[in-house]
Design a protein that fits this description.
The chain contains 5 helices and no strands. The protein is an all-alpha fold. Helix 1 runs antiparallel to helix 2. It starts with a helix and ends with a helix.
Length: 178
Amino acid sequence: MSDPWRRVRGLLGVGVTWGISWAGIGAIVGLVAGVVSPDAGTLANAVFEWAVGMGLYGFVSGVGFGEVLATVERRKALADLSLPRVATWGVLGSAAVPLLFGLLGTFEPGTTTKDVLEAMLLTSFLGGTFAAASVAVARRAELSGPEEPELLTREPVPDAIRSRERERSAASSTERRA
């Protein structure tokens, strides 16, 4: 990756994708927490707080995972990456996020070590899962290759249709000979 802007776009893409996905998971957790816990204030507050918090964790975890993968596995093709190894990078990178947020002082006063460890456990699980899934989806997209819509070919539509007809007739004549 010689173009630094390409790398930044890739990292932001992974971060935003993870952030949005984790925000959805956070909203579900907030909904459950708001219904189960009577002291959560209003249900909307619990959903919003969990969605925003998990979204930020997901964004930072996604960017961190992308940077670790780009740095450590830089010389490997997508097909050569081991999913368990990729998941390990996701677990390690995501487990560090609650520690980072704690060092920045973003936790509420009274947050215990147990709370931080629980956050690390949750983010580790999500990080490993999303890391392996991200690489699996990227592999699948790479294998399927780019698809060109018929109307966006370089030659005019009638010529494109004629070439396809020629290819089909050549293939059918080859099948008849065999």
